[in-house]
Amino acid sequence: MGPDDFGRSSFSGGNGSFRDASSITVKGVLPIYPYIREKDKIKNNSFLFILGLNESIQLENKDKSTNVVNLIGDADGSKKTLKAVNLLINSPQFNRVFNHPEDIYKTSRVNLSRLLNGISNVKIARVEIFYIETIEDLNNNIKNTFMSYPLIIRLEGFHNSEFMVRVDSEDDLIGLTNWLDQKRSFIIIEYIDCIDTTGLYRKARIAVIDGKFYPQHFLTSKNWCVGADARYNLMLEHKQFRDAEQHYLESFNTNILPHYKKQLLLIHEKIGLDIYGIDCFFGENGELVIFELNACMDLLSMWLGPNGEYNYKKPFRSAVSNAIIDLIAN
Fold it and tell me: What domain of life does the UniProt record list for this protein's source (predicted)?
């Protein structure tokens, strides 16, 4: 792993080994790291190399086949580190590289939009990126794209809903003035409205491990930006939305996957990553709407609610965890 491009990473304690690394905060790193480092099968046979901290790699047995797990997953915010990893792994001593940097590059917001555009029954938003110094520049660049409002605007290198808003007209752009202080590129994303007939928004997540598809979550929200906070309010308050998620998880292989497997396989063929997630919406007539696809998604954490309301998630998170461990360790 290594630092992000914007100086928001830190490391303290230990010498880079799984056992000695007591505190690591690295932006853009796969969230699987805190979980896999607790697995003896991996911990006892692994060394954690941190770019910028470790100056060299010394393998205990150079004659033994060695695999590399690239833990840098942010194609937009860790370009320098991905380039360094790419140089590092270009060695015959490494047998296989999981989540190769060349595949991570494909998941930048701009690259992904262009890569998946044109796949039958797959819809993905158009994306443009600009480095601007004034709001007037931003407005002019948007006009030149001929994209229509509403739009989603976010800053490069941030995830979740940090520095991300929906703007409904050019009058709203002035509210982004303080974003200029971040000295980041602005990402302009076409807004695809996926509100249902009940006035709610839903988002499904699919984990992809070694080319196999696993259901992750099915969230319901009143907000267009569907996030994990839905678990703490609407879904916690209303059992029918938890029932909908449980049904999604339990019926994925028999009901959902058969209808969308062709699109998912075509997507995976273009992406090529070993461990990643897909956030999507199941549209009408078999259309798959892709919101995001990258290796930075949280695939393993498991909040079960104050009274075990989400206990039904356990076997599905365990299936993903086991698949990741089997892939890396075997």
Answer: Bacteria
Q: Phi first, then psi: give them for residue 188, nearest 5 degrees.
A: -105, 125
Q: Cα(143)–Cα(138) distance, rounded to whole angstroms?
A: 9
CA 305/CA 232 separation, integer angstroms: 8
The answer to whether the beta carbons of residues 320 and 207 sit under 8 Å apart is yes
DSSP string, 197-244: TTS-EEEEEEEEETTEEEEEEEEEESSSS--GGGGGTHHHH-HHHHHH
Query: Which neighbouring-strand residues pair with 127?
Result: 189
pLDDT at position 50 is 67
Looking at every residue in the chain, the average pLDDT score rounds to 86
The contacts of residue 322 (CB under 8 Å, 6+ apart) are none
The C-alpha atoms of residue 22 and residue 84 are separated, in whole angstroms, by 24
Among 274, 276, 273, 296, CA closest to 27: 296
Confirm if 185 and 156 have CB atoms less than 8 A apart: yes
Q: What topology does CATH give the domain 201-329?
A: D-amino Acid Aminotransferase; Chain A, domain 1 (3.30.470)
Backbone angles phi, psi at 272, to 5 degrees: 80, 0
Write out the CATH class of domain 126-190.
Answer: alpha beta
- Please provide residue 286's backbone torsions phi and psi, each rounded to the nearest 5 degrees: 75, 15
**Predicted pLDDT of residue 25:** 52
Domain extents in the chain: 10-100, 126-190, 201-329
C-alpha span between 249 and 215 (Å, rounded): 6
More confident residue, 238 or 97: 238
From the list 316, 214, 218, 322, the residue with the least C-alpha distance to 264 is 214
Helix (H, G, I), strand (E, B) or coil at 109: helix
Residue 4 makes CB contacts below 8 A (sequence gap 6+) with 26, 27, 28, 74, 77, 78, 81, 157
